[in-house]
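User: Some background: our group keeps a shared notebook of sequences we're curious about, and every so often someone picks one and asks for a predicted structure to add to the entry. Today it's my turn. The entry only has the sequence so far, pasted here. Could you supply the structure so I can complete it?
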Amino acid sequence: MKSNKEKKGLKPAPLFISMERVREVMQCGMTKAYKLLKEARDFKDITKRKHVTFEEFAEFMEISVEQLYSRLNITKDAA
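Assistant: Of course. Here's the predicted structure to add to the notebook entry:
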């Protein structure tokens, strides 16, 4: 059975990656995680106060979203 969102044709809300998650994936400190998020924003031409999605960060790091999820122990269904 379809959910109400699927019935209305709405897309699921995007998931944004936090500095803590970047730190966890890259096994680095907060300063390096901040710099990586800033570089990802610059790479995707995202304005200063906007968030980076998992997909955008994966593209920036040149890895698949599935690899990013596996590094964080997240299943695609849970995301």
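Suggested note for the entry: The CA atoms of residues 23 and 33 lie 5 Å apart. Helices lie at 4-8, 19-26, 30-43, 54-61, 65-71.
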